[in-house]
Design brief:
404 residues, alpha/beta, 9-stranded mixed β-sheet, 15 helices, 9 strands, 32% helix, globular, disordered C terminus
């Protein structure tokens, strides 16, 4: 599933301040070390029961045979806490496919890290959740594709809405904070009001209305997912109206990349506040960075402290020294850091260029041309069976091509 995630670190206990030594000798220490990260996305697996065509996981999914084992994840989470991480998203794919999820959760909680399960809800029943709560799970973020079973299942590429509704019920029954993540695109932007009504009915405290970020499978499906300008404007107005009307639910609007002419800061800045550890142990400053022409370090070979503080991949676009104009002389360079490196690479083939989402970028025409050419098209669904070996049932009456 790998929906976009954001986190609220408030009221989260701090972590130990001392960092472990590197597992291997990797050269002299860096005198001016970066501030520690406060968040980590732990992609436990790329296996997933859903087939979402906007999935931000790489098109070349990491197979189950290459996943980190339990002991590795326990060590990584202990190192994360020592480094300064206070919030861990246990994600995937679908983390519930990991038989050792309880042990991994316990390791994070035991190290003093606030744990959030990022899940499709498929497989989250009362008994499984009770085990996770006992292990120290703090909150759950549930993905929802649309407001009705038919529409949600169509986007997910498999029947899953009923499982999501059941999962929301058991989370509410357990007393855990529940958030919903809804990836927005051409096919569900007009359903925002009904989606928020669903969130209220399910007892969610927070709803992330996350406009699609075009990486991975979403990049492959960009034409079919890009909304029209009018559609996006209506959606924004709806969110503002709902914020005034709906009480007790925080509505987060994650701005789209292709429409405002202002680039987003890449993960709050490359290697600035968060990091990702992939299923095979690859460590990345951004969950969409798999395709960048960088050699990403692996937690099997290096400590998390060395990776964060000293690896070339994390230093590559950290800060502003790497920038050229128009970014280098821009007054916003310390706010947006030149925009998204993954998006710059996806659109121009050069990760060091100004993000074309910026209206000042030499390549901004690429964005405007894409927006104007957007339209309905056949969706190419992610194929989890390449990772898990499982086969899902196609959606009755579904459009596009679902995985077999």
């Amino acid at each position: 599933m790998s929906d976009p995630v954001t986190a609220n670190p408030s009221a989260v206990p701090g972590a130990p301040e001392t960092a472990r030594e590197p597992l291997v000798a990797d050269g002299p220490a860096v005198a001016d070390r970066p501030a520690p990260p406060w968040a980590m996305l732990a992609e436990l697996t790329h296996g997933c029961p859903l087939h979402c065509p906007y999935c931000s996981n790489p098109v070349g999914l990491i197979p189950r045979s290459r996943e980190l084992g339990t002991a590795d994840w326990v060590r990584v989470l202990e190192e994360a806490a020592a480094l300064g991480v206070i919030h861990a998203h246990l994600s995937g794919g679908e983390p519930l496919l990991r038989a050792d999820l309880v042990e991994i959760t316990a390791a994070a909680a035991g190290a003093g890290i606030y744990t959030q399960l990022v899940t499709s809800g498929v497989g989250l029943d009362r008994a499984r959740l009770a085990e996770l709560v006992a292990a120290g799970l703090h909150s759950v973020q549930l993905s929802v594709q649309d407001a009705t079973a038919a529409a949600s299942d169509l986007i997910a590429g498999t029947r899953s809405f009923a499982a999501k509704e059941q999962a929301a019920g058991v989370v509410r029954e357990a007393g855990l904070p529940l958030g919903l993540n809804v990836v927005l695109h051409r096919r569900n932007l007009d359903s925002i009001e009904r989606i928020v009504e669903l969130a209220v009915a399910w007892g969610a405290e927070r709803v992330e209305l996350a406009n699609t970020q075009f990486y991975g499978w979403a990049l492959r499906n960009r034409r079919a997912l890009l909304p029209s300008r009018d559609q996006l404007a209506r959606a924004r107005e709806t969110v503002e109206r709902l914020r005034e009307r709906v009480e007790g639910v925080e509505l987060i609007w994650v701005v789209p990349d292709y429409f405002d002419g202002v680039p987003k800061p890449c993960m709050g800045g490359w290697g600035a506040i968060s990091l990702t550890v992939g299923p095979d142990g690859s460590a990345l400053p951004c969950p969409a960075a798999y395709d960048l022409p960088l050699e990403f370090p692996n937690v099997r070979e290096h400590s998390l402290a060395w990776i964060w503080e000293r690896s070339q991949a994390f230093e590559a676009y950290r800060g502003t020294a790497w920038m050229s104009d128009p970014c280098a002389s821009c007054a916003r360079r310390d706010l947006d850091f030149g925009g998204c490196r993954c998006q710059a690479f996806a659109l121009t083939g050069d990760a060091s260029r100004t993000d074309p989402a910026c209206k000042l970028a030499p390549d901004h025409h690429l964005i405007t041309e894409l927006v104007e050419s957007a339209g309905d098209g056949e969706l190419v669904y992610r194929r989890p069976e390449r990772v898990t070996g499982a086969r899902s049932h196609p959606v009755a009456g579904g459009g596009g091509r679902s995985a077999p």
